[in-house]
């Protein structure tokens, strides 16, 4: 019996050591990334205050861009959203709206609003896609930038590939048609392509923020507000943490794996050479970035991926748990699929920082974290049942994790306050502060649960996005 | 190793470690909260002061511009003489007169320039040029350029050789604005590669400051720096300088790289169409 007790004590000690090591590793990596992000952000803002983006408006050398906006059942908002895409502050661009076999009246609305007619534009399909039913351009000269593609339903990646095949410009900008873009977003997104001497810039991405309860006028954001509902409110905080304290650091290390599918620009030639968007995954945005990077490394071409910390794109966050769960489980499936497709890169020195740091980080802290937390919960319950749980230490451990989560959110708030200061209203700041205290108790368990659903869906072989209904933004007349 | 394992296994370190970490996290969070509050209060205060100072400065400048009041009279203004010693007031003053200067031309602009010199703000700008921080240097360059201080050209040329890209662009643009085509000579000797973004900024400076005659642009085509040659070709292309065709023909015949040869030929085609 004494021998068995010793065995159990030894097992517990090793288990606790591993858990503690994991917790310390994840916390310190967050803090290191936050430090790198804030220093880089400070430097970026200093530089940005002397930059005149308007020079791109008059320059013949401004990069030519093709905006690709896939749309599926967006009839409710498509008219206004396309109009806002056509009125961005940039000269050298075209807009390709790809109607991905919508079941609603999106196509009819587009044809009527923009006076569209069928065109014989030749499409050289470099990537195989679902059948194109028709290509439309406008008879109205005011909409000469617009091309609308009507195609059979094939999912977001397939729609983006159609856009890639049709795009006539050197760079493509992939956007969610329902996003609200800052009017200078294209100017900011295009600039990095001109900057790197001797290195090819293959992709650029900007910060996405939450627009729930913000006021939109003529397709532009005119008033920033913090949502009253707790779920979208905490997502505001979550996005601040991810974009201001995470991705900026990965950008600085040139090891960024993800450019948000909501708004990102890519070198069309490299995107095509890499094979375009993968239809095998629901995480097509991350997968493309990884594959493009991999292509550049394997072909020994000097390259970089650029990241812009300015809030360029505003999107609607899910407000109810059902939609939120669908979104997060899909994100988890996308992560698993991308990591699996590129498993060769894991701890492979050939892929430098990407293989030795980014991919292991995503594997350990994005893919495995929910599983580890779940296992921890199960073991804790077992300890309670067996009566071996030390409640005193357990509570201390809980407080340790809780206060770290609060600290990290407060760092994000501090960073936002000292940089973009997008939430000047006192009430909004207090709402976010309150969210920082509630997040670990309410939001975090939900994300873990949704991620576990993602694992389950992956194991069960679930494919596709599932229906994502949106409420729409508050509009000012 | 065994000793460490024994210490770990004994568990005596866990409680102090956790307690210390919790206190540390809570204390740092609270400190950051206080810093946010301070930052927000400071912003509110600065916004209020900014508004107050701007009104005062605009009133004084208006009296100089439209009522022909001498600067010496302004210095007798009690409020001005008291505030002009504070850094924040001088910053707001600088910002205001630069904005006003952008909106005026001729005699009015000259009066603002006189105020800039008389008030000693010019010294602040020169002091900024000597700063070790590149962003302060940039600010100084922008101010001196806006106020057309040609004497600063030499110092700005030196700064334009900086490795810092933003500083380099600001300095090169300032050189073009202050000295026009004279700056081309310095550009042709530029030792470092000039990327596309910097090139676009330089071309824009040529356009904005109406340097259409662009005497000496051909010098850029003779530079040892291939990016400067590319810049020269782009300036000729964007400003449609057909008078420079003979130099492009010469370059196309003796181009240092295949890319430049191709660019020269395509610009020739475009200009001779």
Structure report:
The complex is a heterodimer of chains A (477) and B (273). Chain A is α/β, with parallel strands linked by helices and 477 residues long. Chain A has a domain of 257 residues: Alpha-Beta Complex (Spore Coat Polysaccharide Biosynthesis Protein SpsA, Chain A). In chain A, 53% of the residues lie in helices and 16% in strands. Chain A has 14 helices and 13 strands. Chain A is globular. The termini of chain A are far apart. The mean pLDDT of chain A is 91. Chain B is built from 16 helices and no strands. Chain B is 77% helix and 0% strand. The longest helix of chain B is centred in the N-terminal third of the chain and has 53 residues. Chains A and B meet through α1, α2, α6, α13 and α14 of A and α2, α8, α10, α12 and α14 of B.
Report the CATH topology name of the domain at 53-227 and 238-319 in chain A: Spore Coat Polysaccharide Biosynthesis Protein SpsA, Chain A
CATH architectural grouping of the domain at 53-227 and 238-319 in chain A: Alpha-Beta Complex
Poorly predicted tracts of residues of chain B: none
Number of DSSP helical runs of chain A: 14
Strand % of chain A is 15-25%
Instruction: Provide the CATH superfamily of the domain at 53-227 and 238-319 in chain A.
Output: Spore Coat Polysaccharide Biosynthesis Protein SpsA, Chain A
- The total of beta strands of chain A comes to 13
Fraction of residues in helix of chain B:
over 70%
Largest interface: A-B, 44 and 40 residues
